[in-house]
Amino acid sequence: MKKVVKILAVIFLGIILSVGIGAYIFYKNIHVPAVQEENPIASLNNPEKKEEDLSSKNVLVVGSDENNLSDTLFIANYNPKNKTISILSIPRDTYYPRPGYNSPGDKKINAAFTEDGIEGTKKAVENLLGINIDHYIIIDYEGFKKVIDTIGGVEVDIPFDMKYDDNSANPPLHINLKKGRQVLDGEKAIQFVRYRHGYIDGDLGRIKAQHQFLEALFKKLTQPSTLPKLPSLAIAVSKHIKTDLTATEIAKYAYQFVKDKPSSIKSFTLPGEPDYKDGVSYFFADNTKIPEVVAEFLGDKTTFSFDPSEIEKNKAIKVEVLNGTNIPGLASKCAETLRKQGFDVVRIGNVVGTTFSTSHVYARTDEEKAKKVANALSIICVEKDITPDSSVDVTVILGKDKSK
User: Fold this and answer.
1) Domains, the chain, ranges and CATH?
2) LytR/CpsA/Psr regulator C-terminal domain location, by residue (predicted)?
């Protein structure tokens, strides 16, 4: 099975943001939007613009191979105000059904990139987490290997012997690493982050190992001895990633990144657990825990919407939640998720006489209100059922897809 590098591309952004010269070289080579903008180096040299528009941004990072396949999804957040870097990993097998896609593989979130491109992936992640994605980065693992080799390798502690061969992969995958602390070059680093067998908790164990690698890589990149290598590093990376970040944005964050020198990276993983559905292995996200994890990831004390004014607006939306399965407590669980986000849940009940395999949200008074509720619960199906004398704005019918 084809794999791509996980959790690491955020550091590429950090590299690019590290020095103005590196950013300028990057600008000359990377695939960026063709827009008219100011010279990025001039932006750095203008004191009045150094602090301009440096707000916290959510950057979606997607790992992709030469066949446009991806199992890498995470969000990186660099907050210049708080001087923090955070990453939130989304397991590749996360259950995320989309209308019109009915095969088992299509119901995994990583399929959104292959079939719907970066825009489809952004939409899926925004719906899942309830946050806005400001920018994206798409990277292949050849670029990753070049970065590791350029900085002279990264030291990590390999928890156990790792050996695996897959000649059917494209390119073929051969992993042979020994237990213990050692410096990994680009090729061995690829093996380490791609290895997924032997972890007690499966893919979550691999994500934890990659977080460890990321911390080690970050420390290496912030060492003074690495700084002279950054321009050549920017050139190497630029040929292997695509992004909608402009050169001016890169340069502005470059200045702030060097100035702040963030000392650590906070790592988070989408809450949930692996399980099977119709004989297929998935990772089922826990929607009741997502708001808390995302809030911590963003360094925000508010709940799901991260905007007190949005929570206040949600109080005006009346919702009824109905259990369309035979699973006890499902409606109450989802109702609590909605209440945490401010929605006025006026009724919890059961659908009598039939069961639903897929969850639905019905707009009784206003479609936009229904979409907000659907996003809060990561439900794809939104339908109009406008009833002028309805006592609720939105009706939610929970299907078996919400049983995990």
Assistant:
1) 9-285 (3.40.630.190), 309-402 (3.30.70.2390)
2) 317-401
Q: What is the pLDDT of residues 11-70, one digit of tens each?
A: 444 443 344 334 444 444 455 454 444 544 444 445 444 444 467 789 998 877 666 666
Q: Report helix, strand or coil for 59.
A: strand
Three-class SS of residue 251?
A: helix
pLDDT of residue 300: 62
Q: Give which of 179, 221, 168, 214 is closest to 193, Cα–Cα.
A: 214
Cβ pair 324, 348 in contact under 8 A: no
pTM of the full predicted structure? 0.65
What is the distance between the alpha carbons of residues 228 and 208, in angstroms, rounded to a whole number? Answer: 31
Q: How many CB atoms lie within 10 A of CB 329?
A: 8
What CA–CA distance (Å, rounded) separates 234 from 21? 9
Q: How large is the C-alpha radius of gyration of the chain?
A: 23
- The pLDDT of residue 19 is 40
From CA 167, how far away is CA 173, in angstroms rounded? 6
